[in-house]
Structures are given as C-alpha cells and as structure tokens.
Amino acid sequence: MSLIAIIDYGSGNLRSVEKAVELAAGDRPVCVTARPEDVLTADHVILPGVGAFADCKQGLDSLPGMVDALEQRVISDGRAFLGICVGMQLLAREGREHGRTDGLGWIDGTVVPITPADRALNVPHMGWNEINVLDKAHPVLGALPAGAHCYFANSYHMQVNDTDLGRGQKLAVTDYGGEITVAVGRDNILGTQFHPEKSQAVGAALLKAFVEWRP
C-alpha cells in the first residue's frame, strides 16, 4: 500500500497535519519521518513548515540526505508533493527573511515581506481569507468550492515569476491589501500558503484531493 510521508525537520505543525492527512487518507499509511529512505518509498510527500524561512531551510538541510531524497522522489520520480506555509515558501529560489537564503529552487519565485496597501491591516496576516483559484482545472485545487475561505498565519509571501511556466506557476491568490500568492505549483508539485489542516471542510477537501492525486 502506497505511503504518505510527512517530513519532520523540526519546523512544522506536525500533529495537526498528521491527523488531518490521516482523515483524508482512509486506510493508507501515513508516516511522520525524518528518514530519507521513507521519502524514497513514498508516493505522496508533504513538507509542512512554521517559523522563519532561514530556520526552516537550515532544519531541512540538517537532515543528512533529505534534500537529495526529495530531489529524487519529487523531481526525478515525479511523485505528488505538497508544501504547506513555509513548506511552500521553501520551494522558491530564495527567501529574504532576515537576509537572503537559498530555497529548493523548484518554483521560480522570491519570498518577501507582506506589505498591505491598507495600513490598518495587520502583519502577520492571521485568520481567514477568501482564495481565488486561478487554475480551476487543477486536479487538487479544482476540488475547492468557489468562494472558499482558508486559514493563514504568515508575514511573508512568494512573488512568482510567471513568465516561465515550465519553472513555476501562480495557482491561487487572495487579497490582503493587495494580491498575495497563496498557491503555487508545476507538474506534480503543489504548495499552499494557507494551512489546509486548519481550514476545516475546505482544507479536508484539498487534502483528500491531494492524497488521491496521481500526477
């Protein structure tokens, strides 16, 4: 039976993600792991993330062989991948939180501070916002209803270079004093800035569609 691997690199809301994925997965095995060998046998890989970009990247890099395993299973083997919050941001070329830090480089984007045009809007962006799915034919995001609201907790967001669609795509946005990218992806890769594990029925629908995705 195919494995769903949730990566534990010291920077994630792991228990909440695990419980939500288990509900979506039915009888499929779900494994929270820091072992590259588990990633190399998984058909679905999830990278959560909470905290600062540089700290999360350092945590991921500190697991011997993990980045190589991700490159093999996701990029070379084409297995389904979901990055959540900072796990999505790590897909970018670089993050600019407390200096410049290289990301995984799977999406052609840069992670920068949220700067709402309306000064009354607080940063961090905490709470519920409506998302606008740009690619309604996407096999995972297409499962979400029109006007779906999701839960956010972030001070930074990804600016995506959409001129090269082979490298990266902006798949969904929200308005928080200006447009913010809230989902990115290409091929077998999906990232969400919002937290599906905290987004109630909408998040459950997204996770169910993800674990059923066979890119």
Fold and architecture overview:
A hairpin with a 5-residue loop joins β5 and β6 (101-102). The protein has an eight-stranded mixed beta sheet, with helices on both faces. Strands 6-5-7-11 form a four-stranded mixed beta sheet, with helices on one face. It has helices at 14-25, 36-39, 53-61, 66-76, 86-89, 200-211; strands spanning 3-7, 30-33, 42-47, 80-84, 94-95, 101-102, 109-113, 125-130, 132-133, 149-154, 156-160, 170-175, 179-186, 189-192. It is globular. By secondary structure, it is an alpha/beta fold. It has a single domain, classed as Class I glutamine amidotransferase (GATase) domain (Rossmann fold), CATH 3.40.50.880.
Give a topology summary:
Layout: E1 3-7, H1 14-25, E2 30-33, H2 36-39, E3 42-47, H3 53-61, H4 66-76, E4 80-84, H5 86-89, E5 94-95, E6 101-102, E7 109-113, E8 125-130, E9 132-133, E10 149-154, E11 156-160, E12 170-175, E13 179-186, E14 189-192, H6 200-211
Parallel strand pairs: 1-2, 1-3, 3-4, 4-14, 5-7
Antiparallel strand pairs: 5-6, 7-11, 8-10, 9-12, 12-13, 13-14
Helix pairs in contact: 1-6
